[in-house]
Specification:
The protein is α/β, with parallel strands linked by helices. The chain contains 17 helices and 14 strands. A hairpin with a 2-residue loop joins strand 11 and strand 12. It starts with a helix and ends with a helix.
Length: about 450
Amino acid sequence: GLRNELNNSKRGMINLIKKAVEKLEEASASKPIYVISHFDTDGITAAAIFARTLSKLDKHFTLRIVKSLNEDFVEELPSNAFLIFLDLGSGSLEQLAKKGDVLILDHHEIPTEVPGNVTMVNPHLIGHEPVCSAAICYLFSKYLLGANKDLASLAVVGTVGDAHEKEIGKVFSEILEDAEATIKKGLLIYPSTRPVDKVLEYCSNPFIPKVSGNRIGVIELLREAGLAPVDGRYKSLHELDEREMRALITAVMVRLKGKHAEKLIGNIFLVKFFSRMEDARELSALINACSRLGHSDIALGFCLGNSALRKEADIVYTRYRQSLFAALRYFYDSEKIEGKSYMIVNARDKIKDTIIGTVASIASHSPAYEEGFVIVALAYDGERIKVSARVVGRNGRNVRELLARVIDVVGGEVGGHANAAGCIIEKKDERKFIEELRKVLELELVKV
């Protein structure tokens, strides 16, 4: 039964891709191609795969990387162009129905009927295993041009970036094979290619008490795990044998009081990225940092193979980590609105709107809060406010529903999942939003 289902869903995916290829051939014959992709790791790697595929097909195109698809942006897109959306678009179908030819390669939920002018490749259409957008773009490219190691490596990075790598399903194993990736079980702090002392010292997710940012604490932890430097250099994670890896995991778990064990142990993926073995998680973090600091052009450039931009990305990444550490310090020290099992942090203009979600996520992994605790953080973005909500652990309230209830009263846009969601509100509604949010959070508690 299950094998049939898997084969059917793979066939289903290929059928969707076939239709997309037909649409590409047909629409691009007479219309300029306009590609719009999302600014996170999945979106950038998807854009790189798609751009390289179009180039190989000798098709000219314009590419834009965006933070989100707001209505004004969609409104202004030319109706006479062939619009291709990567890693976004599924939530804007009503508006896209008014455009001309549209192709969407995306994995987000589809709230409405797919209009006639839109061709879509999305696993939700066929009840397929979760697949990220970079992986969908890779399957599209492979169908047209055959397997490609570089593009498959980009798809591995996109998959890790969207946290789809826990389950190695059919599609992902096919991509790992095409990428000739190396897989090793171990501690998921990165990069697994650098000496373990450096990696622990700069580790911000999870923030390991008395180890992250603390050289002496790092050396102590390694001594406890029985790891010593050889010729003045510690081994990298990727070089540790099983016994050493187990000892290291134990020492880290002691400091995290056993929390997040299942999050912190898993597969380490090494891919060949432009003739150098790289840790897919590190590349994903690098791309993410560039985009969140407003340099998606650098991220895209190095995904397209520009080695000078790779160096620039490293510089941006270092800066990003510094601003993240500063933001985390502000977050932990700032005044909070606290209730029973929730807290609200209004960072106003003290934390960038592009990293407030990351800060909330890292805080939600801290050993300081019990399972089910809700963290909501606000940051200014011009005349609007970006709100990020996270819940600690696996079981707890659906924060997307929480925000949706508040937005019903206050107005704004909401998106995300049960354990990580966000919304955007007008700055003038700041006080009203916080009051309403507290009401909803307090009310929820009565029911739990």
